[in-house]
Amino acid sequence: MMLMQVVCFSAFSQSFSLNGKVYNKNTKEGIDFAYVYLDSLNTTTTQNSGQYSLTNIAKGKYRLCVSVLGYEKFSQEIELNASKNFNIGLQPKSFTISPIVVTGTGTHYKIDNVPVQTEIITKDDIADISGRNVEEIISGISSSIDYTTSSMGSNIKINGLGKDYVLILLNGKRLTGGVGGYADLNRINSADIEQIEVVKGASSTLYGSDAIAGVINIITKKVKGKLSANSSSRLGAYGDFKQLNSFTFSKGKLSGKTTFNYKQKAGYQLNSMKFNNKWESNHDLPFLVHTYYKPVNKSKAYTISQFFEYEVNQKLSLNMDLSWYEKTLYFPFRAQMHNYYYNNRAISFGGQYKLKNKNFLSFNFDVNNYLYYTEYPYKYNESYITSTDVIKKTYYPGDRFKNSDVVNVISQIKGVFNINDKNKLSFGTELRGEYLEARYRLTTPKVNAYTYSLYVQDEMKLSKKLDLVAGLRALYHDKTGFSATPKLSMMYKESKFTHRFTYSNGFKSPTLKELYYYYESNRMGMYRLYLGNEDLKAQKSHYFSISSEFKANKFKTGLNIYLNRIYDKIDYKIIPTTYDHARRGIEETKKRYNIDDARTIGVDWHFSFPVFSQLLFNGSYSYVSAKNLTQDIRLNGISEHSATWKLSWTERWNKKRLNINLSGVYKSDRFYLEEDLERSYADAYQLWKLSSSLSINKWENFKIRITAGIDNLFDYVDDRPYGSHYGTLNPGRTLFVGLNVNFSK
């Protein structure tokens, strides 16, 4: 009897295990956080690229089930009489999971439900386009966004308004640092971007000064998993090369991310001739003369950044972000005997404290220091002209002169409270200080300005179909005084239609250069003096928009009509030249004034249509009438008609994914009013691009993506003489290749 008890006990106490991987049937990629269970008795969730393990299972028959958001539920009867490995493929649901956006309201919404109209560019869109830089990617996807480049940076435009009125955020924080108002986006590598969110129209209620045309929020990839390493490279013609290396880790309460971003290009000429400024006074001279200047110059840049996050406890988390950026812009020796050097160092410290009912408080303290130097590789004699003197200096190889030193300090506190199921209240306060040092370019060597602001916003669910967002920011700028910027947005959903309406105020305080500038320069064949004005008023705007969107299955289209009216636009006004200035050779004096009113009115249309399961066709068209009402002329550098399109084909098999894209962009001509009041135009153009990528997920922890393509497929080049306003600086048909290797555990 004892022997029989031992045998029976051994038989009944025998237990087995069930292990395997849960993966996407289409892509063969592992799915994390899937819920795996046997008859609701033994449960687990997948981790480490879809791996799961169920242990201590007695012999018998069970129903194995797997469920996870976005996939069809899996259910199958299995019999266990031994431990086994069982992989489970899940079929994605027919609908696409809506991405989460935060920029429009400052709180999280699914893109289809956000009350404020928001455009989103996903990491898949970015990978498919495989652009040379962030500006090219954004303007290649959204027709309402355009950009032009210069040695100072990129002038990004939204719906007819340029860099002065577009606020660029990096992970929700103001991206400061640049020259002449240009945001320096070389610090960002497109391979490190999770998604880009675009909110059009005045957004000063949430973001304060500068957000008159809209906001572009670039969100980088976060820490995922215990350990990951990524290397991404892109190589194109004319020495165009970019490299991103990143490393992330998560251990216990501490997580971190380290990135190294490198970019370079060799530069090129579109035409070796330029207009002869002396021809106007002497027609016996040649109309065109040779030049060594290039519209695109050689450059090298790199960024090192470090992010840490520490969870103090279940309620409090702290984070710190550090970055160091350097860029050198090289000019041809025979054109200009000095180069430009840029350096940005930034530190950010913040945290979040979670309260009940998903309420939270957050804070951030950011310090950003952007420096702009002239760098001398050769011996050079330089002259600086101030309001009281002419200063001459000799520089030797390796010397640098600091043209400007800008420090931005921003302190923010924000709270979000879910009052009830129908009301979410946000409030915040911000203190921003800006400090500028620019010897020989300002009326005084050092100047500063401060802005204090307080805002409140209420997100209301009035009914199942109607949402309302109302907000107000009150701010004080120490040079222009008090201002208030209200905003009201409504969304009405009816069946397959979504309608949105927005009214908002925009605000832009004058820059320190606009207030205190003093600079002499020889432009357009005339020696001019440029002056700031300490009596400038803030620029303000009224923005109205109404949009409708239709979505059925995978077909989606939308139309947006808008008006943006700007008051007290800052521009230069010609004033009499003083006797002392005239004796020094000044031929014309221009001073900043609030002299212009402007408006933009236009229509944006977009669509996305699946031709069949593997082929997707999408595009957008924008019309904008951007006008300087004071002078009754078009605003400088704006294309009235813009369009983008993309035909994307995707095939999946054996843990591989092949994607081929044919995409293009069209821009109509741009108008320019020169400093000598001559009118000129940049030509209309269209550029086509063929790109492809092969993703391989054959190995458990490794993912590889190979890209290749042709930029400017039909070889269009705007090769007018140097100094012209170019429609595009694209050098012609070029090839590019890329490689991305990702390891995660």
Rounded mean pLDDT is 90
Content-based structural category:
mainly beta
Rg calc: 29 Å
Low-pLDDT regions: 4-12
Largest sheet: 22 strands, antiparallel, barrel
Termini Cα gap: 52 Å
Can you tell me the CATH class of the largest domain? Mainly Beta
Count of helical segments?
Answer: 6
Strand content: over 45%
CATH superfamily label of the largest domain: TonB-dependent receptor, beta-barrel domain
| Count of spatially separate domains | 2
Looking at the structure, the CATH topology of the largest domain is Maltoporin, Chain A
The rough form would be described as: globular
**Named CATH architecture of the largest domain:** Beta Barrel
Number of strands: 48
The helix content is: under 10%
Task: Describe the protein.
- The chain has six helices and 48 strands.
- With 745 residues, the protein is mainly beta.
- The strands form nine sheets. The chain has a 22-stranded antiparallel β-barrel.
- The protein has two domains: 16-90, Carboxypeptidase-like, regulatory domain (Immunoglobulin-like, Sandwich), CATH 2.60.40.1120; 214-744, Maltoporin, Chain A.
- 6% of the residues lie in helices and 60% in strands.
